[in-house]
Amino acid sequence: MEATPEGSAEWSEPGLYTVAPGVHRIPLPLPNDGLRAVNVYALTEGSDLVLIDSGWALDEAREQLAAALKGLGAELGDVSQFLVTHVHRDHYTQAVALRREFGGRIALGSLEEPSLRMTADPDVVPLIGQIRLLRMCGADPVADELVRVFEIHGRNTEASIWEQPDEWLTPGRRSVLPSRQLDVVHTPGHTAGHVVFDDGAAGLMFTGDHVLPHITPSIGFQPAVAEMPLRDFLDSLRLVRGMPDRRMLPAHGPVADSVHARVDELLDHHAQRLDVIATTIVDGAATAYESALRLGWTRRQRKLGELDVFNQMLAVLETAAHLDLLVHQGKLALLVEDGVRRYSVA
């Protein structure tokens, strides 16, 4: 596989795409996932090789990564370090699998530790935190279907694919290659410990799932439930907006010319979404589930019931995150009755 210029093919097409000198994008497959692919970025200098994110631990992803690295004159065992933006499996688990086989160090944001600890615990039932939140949202039908579809009633049988990193990342500058330094920037919201990597010298920002070009990332989807993930996410967007603008290298979607331009769109989107969701309460919805049923989802404005159960879960929890922020802003009032969170006009 030979390197080709960035933008020479559909972003999710397997290949090796040169973004900048010493920076190459490698899209890797995801299983039955609407995101289509996850971008892994290879940073090279001489024989040194570092990856930003690693992909999902799948045979097909491993094969495509090996083929792409071969185009750089490298092999899987040549990766000295994995810098992972957050602990979701499409970013983290292939790093664990490759470390077990070849070595290499994994670095992950320090505030991901509680979620990783729970994910790796065989006695913590998967999605149990989300099921509890759904019931607090008045979304028993979604919670019950989630339990049925994912057979959530026993031990975590996938705990063994998770391991601790070699290093917990904290904000600040670090050398990753002899002539390349990255600033680690803590950007909670998508997950509590999400980080982006800023390459000021090259004018690049590896934005992970914090800033995506075509979709808005899910908010607070993690085992260790965050108190107010939307507030954290919007604050993180403003933090990045206050930094110098960079070329955007996202985890899903094509490379884009401006981080700032997309941040502005995301901030506008959530401002509008807050207004629309507040209106559902004015019009009579009382719970996050009732509100979500009145909203349109995806670009096609699909009804909640038209989504698969996993995306119904994300939709209800995103609605709850907006409602809780409206309460925090004093625009709505909250009353908990029989374990269900009910909202009204303040």
Give an overview in words:
The protein has 346 residues and is an alpha/beta fold. The protein folds into two domains: 4-120 and 162-257, Metallo-beta-lactamase, Chain A (4-Layer Sandwich); 128-154 and 273-345, no CATH class. It is 34% helix and 23% strand. It is built from nine helices and 15 strands. The chain has an eight-stranded mixed sheet with strand order 1-2-3-4-5-6-7-8, with helices on one face. Helix 5 packs antiparallel against helix 9 and helix 7 (259-282) packs across helix 9 (309-328). The longest helix is centred in the C-terminal third of the chain and has 24 residues, at 259-282. The protein starts with a strand and ends with a strand. The mean pLDDT is 95. It comes from Amycolatopsis methanolica 239. Pfam families: Lactamase_B. This is Zn-dependent hydrolase, glyoxylase. GO terms for molecular function: hydrolase activity. Residues 37-252 form the Metallo-beta-lactamase domain.
Q: What proportion strand?
A: 15-25%
Written as H for each helix and E for each strand, in order along the chain, the element string is: EEEEEHEHEHHHEEEEEHEHHHEE
- DSSP summary: helix tally: 9
Main sheet properties: 8 strands, mixed
Which stretches are poorly predicted, pLDDT < 50 over at least 5 residues? none
The averaged pLDDT comes out at 95
Helix content: 25-40%
At CATH level 3, the topology of the largest domain is: Metallo-beta-lactamase, Chain A
The gyration radius over C-alpha positions equals: 20 Å
Class per helix and strand makeup: alpha/beta
